[in-house]
Fold these 4 entries.
Entry 1:
Amino acid sequence: MKKSNEDLKREIIEAGYKAIEHLIKVAKEDIITGGDGDISADRLKNAAATKKLAISDAFEILSRIQSEQEILDSPIQSGSNQKQGFAEGRAK
């Protein structure tokens, strides 16, 4: 059976939350691991950049999820508006 667009969007939202959880794990990981305390500046910069990207991506995904959730939760327009064309519906 074919899923509706609304069902697919809800699945995408659920997957987005899981992705955010993984990105949070990346952001929480310690940069310096292992026994040697001597780590190159390039490796530190790359690790910090990875964490920054993970945090930024998590916020971007969360923002998009909130937008899509608001669209899904908004009340359906009345039947008279649905029969109007694009321009007529936006004119009000």
Entry 2:
Amino acid sequence: MTEIDVRCAAAGAGWSCEATIRELGGESRYSVRVTRDDLARLAPGDGDPERLVRASFVFLLEREPKESILRSFELPVIGRYFPEYGSEIRRRLRG
């Protein structure tokens, strides 16, 4: 069972988010930056950056182990590795 905990705090033109992934074998921590523009583009009408980051980690874990995820990144970086990210995350957050 995988547990994803996300906490975001306002920072500049967006949020600084800390994510923790807990699995039976331990936990990993990540730092993710989300801008207001990222939130508007990837989760239109949704004002919750924590929900967006959590959904983004679910997306990532479906494609790679937690050990392969960058420890610190800006949210749009996911799209460089997985071109389907933007459309897929918008679909998931609408449903």
Entry 3:
Amino acid sequence: MAGAGDRGRAVLAVAEVERTLNARAMVQPDDLHPIALFNSNGDWLAGNRVSLPGAAPFDQPFLFTVQQGSEAVQFRGIVHRMPTGEALLVAQDMRGAQAFRQAMLSALLPAAAAALLFGLAGAVVAGRGALGRIEGVTRTIERIVNGNLSERLPSNGRGGDIDRLIGVVNGMLDDIERLVHEVKGVTEDIAHDLRTPLTRLLAGLERVHRRATSVAEYEVAMDAIGTAIIETKGILATFAALLRIAEVESGARRAGFITVDLNAVATDVAEFYEPVAEAKGISLSLEPAAEGSAETAGDPSLLFEAIGNLIENAIKYSPSDSSVRMRVLATRDRVGVEVSDLGPGIPAEQRDIVLRRFHRLDRSRAMPGSGLGLSLVAAVAKLHEFHLAIEDAQPGCRVVLWSDGSHPRNRNTVPFADQTELA
């Protein structure tokens, strides 16, 4: 009984669908959106007058063609099987969608072609500009390779990644040019500064070889040998200083950086050179940092050596009964050491040149030394990323060695007092 009732309701539902579809077909007879009902054999029952496509899948969209007069019209539809076996077709005429697609293509293709042309034109312009810059850089590099180290890569000054790279390369070229000039001058400087002690050494040894036939001559020979030993030690000290500068400039000592208090280093330097200053009648004074601490990251033995060279030069070139003052700097934006003396000073045009190896002022040629002290100070300053400035103290000379900022760039848990001297 229950099955017969369900069957009756399904038949009534199909009849209601037929009436609804026939009423719709009368209102919309254009067949643009056909909806039709077919029996289980595929015969039309109600709705728009269309044929059921053969082998149409149920409940899946598909495309089919309907012949309307002389035109074959494409439709997109879906077929649903009713509980009573009838098939319900819902379809849509695809001519509107196709016309819209064609209109979109007609509108977009010219715009796409124009965009492509503009893009190609922009690429050509940008490419020509880039190729021009590359060509300029290439020609400059060729001139540098051919020996013109004063050349620099051209920059348009507009910023950007290429200009930043060019700036870095030009900075590297500045360092290369400086180093090459220094290397070129080393041979001449060595020949000039070592020729005299080597000549004296050779002459003394020749005198020893020719003489020493009596006691008096033996004493003279011993004096010559002593002089030769002193000259040899001086030569060895010069080469040791050269090796020391080369070691510092290689950057190998940077791995041993710790937190260093410049107050402690300056105190050690003052204590070490105080007897030297007293022997010449010079007053050596130290003014610690006002804030009590002047910490920076560095190698304590190299900083001791650099500051010691500044003090040694100040004592050497200061007149007797004068003073040498050392001051430790520790402010918000600067930490370093300042050494001032009352000597003759360094002319402004010579302040960069005196940092070169073996370079000595004419008035200093007769004084002992190799001309490597300030070169070592400059190498230590560069290793520690310090600034080095030679100024006029009016009277005298003032040398300032400092770093930007009072905080160490690299802290280490091992305190300075526990380090073994590396020099």
Entry 4:
Amino acid sequence: MEINKKYNEMGKMKAIVYKEYGEPDVLQIVDLVKPLPKQNEVCIRVKAVSINFGDLLARNYKNISPKNFNMPFLFWIIAKISFGFSKPRINVLGNSFSGEIESVGNAVTLFKTGDKVFGYTGEKMGAYANYLCMPENGFLEILPSNIAYDEASIIPYGTSIALNLLRKANIQKGQKVLIVGASGGIGSAAVQLAKHLFEAEVTGVCSSKKTEFVKMLGADKVIDYQKEDFTKNKDKYDLIFDILGKGTLKHYKNSLKENGIYLLASFKMKKLLQMLWTSLRGRKRLICALVSPKIEDLHYIAKLIEEGKIKSIVNKSYPLEQTAEAHRYIENRKNSGNVVIIV
């Protein structure tokens, strides 16, 4: 606390910076100038920030080939331009966070100093730091009273994306939903939303290490893909939600009901063409979905948290100065849930 106070008085802050792509060790803690809010901005003292797939991808993007990228080539090019070709253009990662508003610009009316908030900075990143500034009309919401900072930092990105994707499938009460990749940021949110909001019968697919985590989220059944291939049992589903898009319609088709949907959050061009084909022919459809969450979604998610329909489970937390170790922990597949940086 005394260290943070000292840097605050000096107009400085601690941040995790990377100036070249590579392994976790490229992440270094440095002193930066503390940002000041513009007239329509708030300055947030970051309390916690979750580490998500996008952070790992951005940190080592130079070594991510189009083949290893989970989206079409054009998206890889766009991301390459955004992140930087040979060196990173954005030097401070982290985008899903929670914290407390320390100061506000003269024109701000939606928030006040002292408000506890959680939010998402998107491609601008910047949350691996003591402070960050963002517009008051950005993806930012008051923190519900029944959730802690570390738990809240996990929610904004994954839950808003999962909510919008599941809406594309028009899930009905009592339908059977299978989620492939149920332990990730989007997948873990999808399990809870499908179960507690849409009132579906939910099966989660994950690795052996993460089965207990997915059960805790409320899944009716959990399949360990290292021990069982769900396509070889007789169960059929109204929706198969494939987070990373590693499966195929051909492989999953027999596990879909007659009017079933195969929904993908990540996809290649071939699956886009398959989506067009299935929309014209056959009752089993493939849907490749892109979504852009709106602030109204975060308002709604805050309400779901207050009602106990959404919760977060933190597997492990690290202090800011150990962010590189946190990245290494995830990449070595040691985590059985969400990993959070405590700022």
